[in-house]
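Work Package 4 report. The design task specified in the project plan requires that, given a folded chain encoded as structure tokens, an amino acid be chosen for each position. We show below one input record used in the internal validation round.
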């Protein structure tokens, strides 16, 4: 059996509400963190695109005017922008021509930049448009922008195409955004926990505790213990239910007391009747509403020499003389069906084996409401 099914509803419902609030609020905070990360990435892509296009125009202009020294200044200026880790100009073979890190010049970009993506690099060369990719940790962007170079280190290269590469680090920006989201979410979570706690306490006070009291009192009533009453504060449905249970308990207690008194009186009455019937100088029988005899006095049993178990039901008819049996049975059943008093004569076998004539007088019995109770 499921362990939860053995716990009463009144016990686990408040906790279910509490944890539902906490889980929903935490899920909402996690979703907001994911959404802000996506927004930061999208904004970073747009910012990078704008910077790369601006850098392309400036660098191409400087190259056309042979202002090669100014190219280094532009690259240094661009690399000083927030979140920019590295800016390099790479030729079609992947050799670093210009870089914000001077140590990378004349080295292969693959050796100095582990995040370098050769596929994006080749795609930018072929399609000749801006491309940006996320690194594996999704916190760094590599941007590729094609530029036309006619002069490289003093050499004339007509229609030569190079790639302006920028490494854009989002770690600090994403971390800062996450901190802001977590801080605001923490306030929301704290507020939700406070609300859930107050709701749980109110539910426990107005629902759980009254139900526990009701269950205890009902259990006592089931065990015929009417000494406990409900004390439920308020005017709600549970308070009304408590009043009904208290009234029901009072009525049941009174009814059981009356029943015990009636049973006691009935036992005393039956005892007096049997004592009187057993001492009477006549044979006495009692029949129920189904025509079957349920009791014989002691004189009858002494007369027939049979036990009570042998006589009850239709056992008494075994002692009726065969010549009188039919007439005796017809008289008994006909008057019984009409609920009428009757007299009949028949012979009944005595304990010695001889038959003696008896005059039987049957009187119908009715209770105080007039209901037939037998003979």
């Amino acid at each position: 059996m499921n362990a939860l099914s053995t716990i009463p509803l009144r016990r686990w419902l408040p906790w279910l509400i509490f944890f539902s609030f906490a889980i929903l609020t935490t899920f909402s905070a996690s979703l907001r963190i994911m959404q802000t990360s996506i927004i930061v990435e999208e904004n970073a892509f747009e910012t990078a695109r704008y910077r790369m296009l601006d850098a392309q125009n400036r660098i191409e202009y400087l190259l056309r005017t042979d202002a090669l020294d100014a190219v280094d200044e532009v690259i240094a200026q661009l690399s000083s922008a927030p979140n920019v880790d590295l800016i390099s100009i790479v030729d079609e073979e992947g050799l670093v021509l210009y870089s914000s890190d001077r140590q990378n010049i004349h080295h292969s970009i693959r050796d100095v930049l582990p995040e370098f993506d050769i596929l994006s690099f080749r795609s930018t060369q072929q399609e000749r448009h801006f491309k940006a990719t996320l690194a594996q940790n999704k916190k760094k962007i590599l941007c590729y922008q094609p530029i036309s170079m006619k002069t490289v280190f003093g050499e004339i290269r007509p229609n030569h195409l190079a790639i302006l590469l920028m490494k854009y680090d989002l770690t600090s920006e994403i971390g800062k955004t996450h901190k802001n989201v977590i801080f605001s979410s923490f306030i929301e979570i704290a507020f939700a926990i406070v609300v859930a706690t107050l709701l749980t306490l109110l539910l426990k006070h107005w629902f759980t505790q009254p139900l526990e009291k009701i269950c205890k009192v009902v259990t006592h009533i089931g065990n015929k213990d009417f000494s406990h009453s409900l004390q439920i504060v308020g005017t709600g449905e549970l308070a009304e239910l408590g009043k009904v249970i208290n009234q029901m308990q009072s009525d049941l207690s009174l009814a059981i007391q009356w029943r015990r008194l009636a049973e006691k009186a009935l036992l005393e009455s039956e005892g007096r009747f049997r004592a009187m019937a057993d001492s009477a100088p006549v044979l006495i029988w009692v029949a129920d509403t189904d025509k079957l005899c349920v009791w014989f006095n002691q004189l009858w049993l002494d007369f027939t020499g049979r036990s009570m178990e042998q006589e009850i039901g239709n056992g008494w008819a075994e002692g009726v003389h065969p010549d009188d049996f039919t007439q005796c049975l017809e008289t008994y059943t006909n008057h019984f069906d009409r609920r009428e008093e009757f007299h009949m004569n028949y012979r009944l076998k005595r304990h010695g084996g001889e038959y003696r004539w008896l005059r039987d007088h049957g009187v119908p019995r009715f209770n105080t409401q007039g209901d037939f109770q037998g003979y």
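The mean pLDDT is 78. Validation will be extended to a larger panel in the next phase.
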